Amino acid sequence: MLRLASRPTPVLAWLLATAYAAHAGEATDAASAAADQFKLMVGSALMTDYIYRGLSYSAHQPSVGTYVDAQQGWLYVYTNFNSVRFSTSPAVELTMAVGARPTLGPFEFDIGAAYYYYPG
Question: 3-state class of 88 per DSSP?
Answer without folding.
Answer: coil
